[in-house]
Prior knowledge:
The protein is mainly alpha-helical and 402 residues long. Helix content is 75%, strand content 6%.
Amino acid sequence: MAVFAYQGTNRAGTVVKGEQMATTKAEATNILRRQQINVTKISEKGKEFTMPTFGGSVSAKELAIFTRQFSVMIDAGLPLVQCLELIANQQDNKHFQKILHSVRSSVEGGATLSMAMRPHAKVFDTLYVNMIEAGETGGILDTILQRLSAYIEKNVKLKAAVKSALIYPVSVISIAVLVVVGLLWKVVPIFGKLFEGLGVALPTPTKIVINLSNFIGSIYGLMIVVIFVGIGFALKVWYGTPVGRRAIDAAMLKIPIIGMILRKIAVARFTRTLGTLISSGVPILEGLDITARTSGNAVVEEALMKVRAAVEGGRNLMDPLKETEIFPSMVTQMVGVGEQTGAMDAMLSKVADFYEDEVDAAIKNMLTLMEPMMIAFLGVAVGGIVISLYLPLFELIGKLAG
């Protein structure tokens, strides 16, 4: 027998801590579950410290592939433990393989699949575990796994679309900045010395470019770089605080074009997540709680928690959603229709499909708009420097010809 220190929540949602005697971790978790304690953290006393695993992470794509394979195997009638063993042995990601072996061991020890997954929150988040638990309770684990894999695949597709859209403008702007800095740092000083030796009068554009070059080459240029890096680091640290996260997320939603795309992404994620949870049998209050925590935006999360409180107070879902002023009227009306007809999950899925297409279209339009602007910026920046360097030479050639 060993002593296990645990942390979890009781039926009232209060955080509880304590110790439990058991032979294995799975047995301790089962005992606590029978006491209606939802275990979030458990470890054998005296062995709480574990060496951190560097570089160990599981991507959303790997999780989607695992869920799809798992659903096919369960649907084919293979035992749960055998499915986990087969998929774990096929994993190239050693960190994920270790987690799956741990889950298999817990299931073999008598734990349910959701209980075995719960300690690995970095891989199997709250949404994933709650849906698995709903599937186990309703005896439809294969169906739930199929819905989960479809949900994760759609999320991966949405994130990939946003990332691929950002790659082009970020690459062009980065190259433009590097080219301009390279010209000012290495090329312009050569021309500056040439003009100084010739003793020609410099036009205003040339003076500006040479002064910029001198500034970048001096200690002040290095200080500017350090200041920008410091600001970036400070913003990252501030974003880690609740106040900073809310302020930055609110500011992002107000940026022209980008803010509109972020709102559409938030709506698509909300409707897809809540629709998947409701269709899987997760209660509406729990579904709203999970959806809020997985929204990815502090403003949206705060709004959804207010909606949850209103629904818990006896109101319908449509009116509190409308009061947030974050979700478009089409979304709230579709939710209202879903509530009246009892087809909330179907309505939310349709809205999610629509807004995912809207995000794709908005990203394409943004790229179409940004492309000529970036080319113009690159041309003006580089062309302006080159022309300003040749202006004194043109004047000198004109004088010599005269």
